[in-house]
Amino acid sequence: xxxxxxxxxxxxxxxxxxxxxxxxxxxxxxxxxxxxxxxxxxxxxxxxxxxxxxxxxxxxxxxxxxxxxxxxxxxxxxxxxxxxxxxxxxxxxxxxxxxxxxxxxxxxxxxxxxxxxxxxxxxxxxxxxxxxxxxxxxxxxxxxxxxxxxxxxxxxxxxxx
Amino acid sequence: xxxxxxxxxxxxxxxxxxxxxxxxxxxxxxxxxxxxxxxxxxxxxxxxxxxxxxxxxxxxxxxxxxxxxxxxxxxxxxxxxxxxxxxxxxxxxxxxxxxxxxxxxxxxxxxxxxxxxxxxxxxxxxxxxxxxxxxxxxxxxxxxxxxxxxxxxxxxxxxxxxxxxxxxxxxxxxxxxxxxxxxxxxxxxxxxxxxxxxxxxxxxxxxxxxxxxxxxxxxxxxxxxxxxxxxx
Amino acid sequence: xxxxxxxxxxxxxxxxxxxxxxxxxxxxxxxxxxxxxxxxxxxxxxxxxxxxxxxxxxxxxxxxxxxxxxxxxxxxxxxxxxxxxxxxxxxxxxxxxxxxxxxxxxxxxxxxxxxxxxxxxxxxxxxxxxxxxxxxxxxxxxxxxxxxxxxxxxxxxxxxxxxxxxxxxxxxxxxxxxxxxxxxxxxxxxxxxxxxxxxxxxxxxxxxxxxxxxxxxxxxxxxxxxxxxxxxxxxxxxxxxxxxxxxxxxxxxxxxxxxxxxxxxxxxxxxxxxxxxxxxxxxxxxxxxxxxxxxxxxxxxxxxxxxxxxxxxxxxxxxxxxxxxxxxxxxxxxxxxxxxxxxxxxxxxxxxxxxxxxxxxxxxxxxxxxxxxxxxxxxxxxxxxxxxxxxxxxxxxxxxxxxxxxxxxxxxxxxxxxxxxxxxxxxxxxxxxxxxxxxxxxxxxxxxxxxxxxxxxxxxxxxxxxxxxxxxxxxxxxxxxxxxxxxxxxxxxxxxxxxxxxxxxxxxxxxxxxxxxxxxxxxxxxxxxxxxxxxxxxxxxxxxxxxxxxxxxxxxxxxxxxxxxxxxxxxxxxxxxxxxxx
Lengths: 161, 232, 582
Prior knowledge:
heterotrimer; A: mainly alpha; 3 domains; 53% helix; disordered C terminus; B: mainly alpha; Four Helix Bundle (Hemerythrin (Met), subunit A); 72% helix; 0% strand; disordered N terminus
C-alpha cells in the first residue's frame, strides 16, 4: 500500500515555502506602497492570497497527487461558499432600488457613548478634546503607548491636529 | 486507531507502525486510509464553510462601510505583527509537511523534531496574538459592542462603525485562534504517539489528517491577514 | 430496549448472535449499549431519543392548539374568556414546538435513526466508516439536547424557532435562555455534521463487492444526498448561532442596524442553512417512499436513475433558493432571482412523485400499514409541494407571507411528507430492527386516525391563511373560529393515532410474533440479514447478484417461493398490454 503514497522531495517543498514567503512579502509591499485605490488593492491582495492558497492546497496538502474525489469535495465546498457570498452581496448592493426604505440604516451610538463616558470621567474635556491629566490612572489611558503624550501640551489642543 | 497488542502478533519485535491492523469493518489498510482522508476533507470543507460566514460578513460590511474599513484596519491593526505571524504559520506548514515526509521515509528523529518546531510555531502565533494584540486592545478599550471604550489617539477619532470592524476582527481572529489552539493540541497528541513510533511508512493516517487540519488553519490566515491588516 | 431476541438458534460463535442479545446482567447490558460502536444499536438509541423529542414537541403543539380552541376575548367589564395561556406563554409554546421538532426530532429522525440502522445493512457493510465518530455524534446530540432543555427549563424562549434578530438579541429578561438555546443548536449541528460525514464516506468506500452506484437501494441515494447537505450547510448554521450568541452577550452589532449591522444579514445566514435543512428533513422521507412503493407493490421502481439523480438534484438546488424566505425583507432584484430559482426545486420533486405513481401502476399492491403511509405520502406531499409553488411566486408570497397558509404548507411537507414517511419506514423495518412483527390491524387503525387527524388539523389552516389569519398569534377574530376549532379537534385525533401506534409497538416488543428474515419479500440486502441482524450484520460478506427492485425475475431470499411466484415470462416480441418497459 505504501507505494501508492507520493513522497515529495524536501527540496521541492522548500521551494514552495520560498514562493509562499515571497508572495507574502509581495502582498505587504503592494498593499502599503502601491496605491491602486481601495478596490484595486483588495483585488491584488486577494489574487496573491488565492495563489498562496493554491500552493498550500495543491502541494502542502498533497491534493495535486491525491484522489480526485478529495478535490471534488473542496470544489463543492467552494461552490457552496461562493453561492452564499454571491447572493448575499447581490442583495446588499441592490436593496432599496425600488423601495428606498429597505436600505435605511440608523446612526450608531457606541462611539458617542464611549466619548460621553470619557468626558464624564475626565479623560476628555467637555468639548471632547484630550486632557493632560494622567494622575487618575484608569488603566485605560495608562496603557495607551504614548498616545496621550501628544496632548501633553495642553487641553486646548485639538484632537485632529 | 486500533493497535494490536504485541502478544497477538507474530511481528512482536517490530516497530509499532509495522504492526498496525485496520479496524474489522475495513477490507484492508489502504481502504481505511483513503476513507479517513476523505472524511478529513469533508470535515475541512465544513470548516471552510464555517469561516465563509466570516468572509461573507466581511464583504457585506465592507460594502456598507467602505471608508471605516479603510481607516480602521490601518489604525487598529499593526501589519508587522500580522506579517510575522503569517511567516511563522507558513514555516510551521512547511515543518508539518516535512514531519509527514519523515514518517513516510521512517526518519523517527526528524519526525519528532519537525513536530516540535510546528508546535512551537503555533504557540508563538498564539503568544504574539494575545500578547501584542488582544491584551493591549482590551486595555485600550478597542473591543466591539457596548464595551467599546476607545476615544482615539494620534489624531485619530473613532468613526461610527469602528466597533463593528473591531467586532469582525475579534470574532474572526478568535475563531481562527481557537483552531490554532486545537491544532497545537492535536500536534501534541501526534508528538506523543510519534514518541511511541506509531507513525512510519506503512501507517501515518492520524499524522496526515492532523497535517491537513494544520494547513487549513494556515489557509484561513492567508486570507484573513491581507483582508484585516492590509487592505481594509 | 427490548431484551428478547427472536433468533436464539444461531449460536455459531460470539459474533453470530443477534445484536439485541444482552451481554450479561442489566448493568453490563446498559454499559454495553452506552459504549457501543455498533451502528444498529446507535440507530436504535437515536430512534428512541428522537421519538422522545417528538413526544415533547408534540405536547407543545397540543398546548398551542388548545389555546387556539377559543379566541381570547376581553369584554367591556374586563373579563377575559377563552384564554388558557397568556400571550407570552403562548409565544414560548410555539417557539419550543418549532425548535424541538426541527432540531431535536425531524433533522436527526430519519437519517440518524433509520439511516444509521439501515445504511450499512443495505450496502452490505459491517458498520459505518467511522464507528466511534458515530457514537460521538450520538453523545453530542444528547449533550446539545440537554443544553437546549436547560433553556426550556429556564422558562423557555419566545423568539420563534428561527431566532430572528432583534427578538433574539434584545428581548428583556431572557438572556441566558436564548444563549442556551442557540448554544444547544450549535452543538446539535456538530452531531449532524458527524453523521453526514460518516454516511458520505460509508457510501463511497464500504459498498459490498459488485454493488455499483446504480445497484444501491434508492433509500441509500436519498441518505447520501442528505448527508452532502448536512456536511455543506450545517457549518453555516454553526457560525450563525455562534455570532447570534456573541451578539446577545457582547452586543457586537453584526445584526443590529443601530450599530452598523444588518438584521437581514442574519436572515441570509440562517436560511442559507435552514433552507437546505428542509431537504435534510424531506429527502430521507423520499428515500423511504421509494423502498415502500417498490417492495409493497412488488414492482421494479419506475425510472430508477431519474429518482436517484433527482435526489442529487434536490441537494444541489437546495443551496440556491434560501432567499425565498426573505421576500418581504431582502432586496427586490435578489427576490426576483430567488423566486425563479425556487421553481426549479419542483422539477426533481415532481419527477419522484410521478415515478412512484408510475411504479404503482399494475403493481401487486399490498394494503398494509407501510403501503398506506406511502399512499398517504403521495397525497399529502403533493398538496404540500404544490402549495410551495404558490409561495415561491414572489407576488403571491407577499400576500401569504407569515399567514397560516405558510404554516399549513410546511406542515404538509414536514409532517405530511417527512413524518408520514418516517412512520411508514418504522413499520416497514420494525420486524428487521426488533425481530418482532407488529399487529397489522392496530397499525392500520393508527394510520387511519393519523391520516384523518392530520388533514383535519392542517387543511383548514390553508383556508384561514388565504383569508389572512396571521401565524404566531395567541388569539383571532371570530370569523376564523370554525377553522381553528376543526384544526384543534384534528390535533386530538392525531394524538389518538400516535397513541395507537405507540401501543402497537409496545405490544409488539412484549408479545409480538417473531419476525421472519424477510417478511415483505424485499430484495435489498438488509432483508438477507437475520431479523434482528447478527452483530456484524452478515455471516459472510454479501455479493450482489441482482438489483434491489428486480421483482420480476428474482424470488426473494428467505421467502417461501410459493408466496412469490415468478410472473409469466413475456415474449420479447409481444409486449403485454399495459406492461411497462423498464
